[in-house]
Design brief:
This protein is of the alpha+beta class and 177 residues long. 23% of the residues lie in helices and 28% in strands. Strand 4 (94-99) and strand 5 form a beta hairpin. The chain is globular, with a radius of gyration of 15 Å. The protein starts with 27 loop residues before the first helix and ends with a helix. The structure holds zinc ion.
């Protein structure tokens, strides 16, 4: 049975180190970690989660967008398991959007990201995939990819004026759906 994992909060060194590549995707401990991350991200109303956020400094994350309390307008998708990702190309076009993070509760930041990216990664079965992501999913991918390099969204805001509390953010969202 998958279990909810504790989420590392900003200040934990595990969020600030470079993650290690996964050598064997079929390792039962890795498969169990993935199953636990799937229930943990759903329980926490996240749209993605990276392994370092559950104290596993490994090159693994989930993109798991769905509308929820924290992201009422997120697109609905089946969660994608991303192992040992590479970003192959990034569009010159950037877009700013509001982000939050399960490791930094209560805070949102207006973060510039590449509008489109091309990526390569391994699936949980160890198969190589190449995909293109745009807009919100490209944003989630770049946010989670940052986590496995030890970077968090507050490192990416252009100004501290572009931070706000989650409570204020959700108020504004409900006025501008
Ligand atoms: Zn995060």
């Amino acid at each position: 049975m998958p279990i909810l994992r504790q989420i590392a909060q900003l200040g934990q060194p595990v969020l600030r180190r470079l993650s290690d590549k996964i050598v064997d995707t079929e390792d039962p401990a890795i498969q169990m970690l993935i199953d636990d991350m799937l229930v943990t991200v759903a329980d926490a109303d996240g749209v993605g989660i990276a392994a370092p956020q559950v104290f596993a400094p490994l090159s693994l994350f989930l993109v798991a967008s769905r509308p929820n309390r924290r992201y009422p307008h997120a697109p609905l998708m089946n969660p994608v398991v991303i192992i040992n990702p590479e970003i192959l190309w990034r569009s010159d076009e950037m877009e700013k959007g509001w982000e939050g993070c399960l490791s930094i509760p209560g805070l949102r930041g207006f973060v510039p990201r590449h509008r489109r990216i091309g990526v390569r990664y391994l699936t949980r079965k160890g198969e190589v995939r190449e995909e293109e992501y745009g807009d919100f999913l490209a944003r989630v991918f770049q946010h989670e990819f940052d986590h496995i390099q030890g970077t968090v969204f507050v490192d990416r805001v252009e100004s501290t004026q572009e931070l706000m509390t989650e409570k204020e953010y959700l108020k504004i969202q409900s006025c501008n759906p």
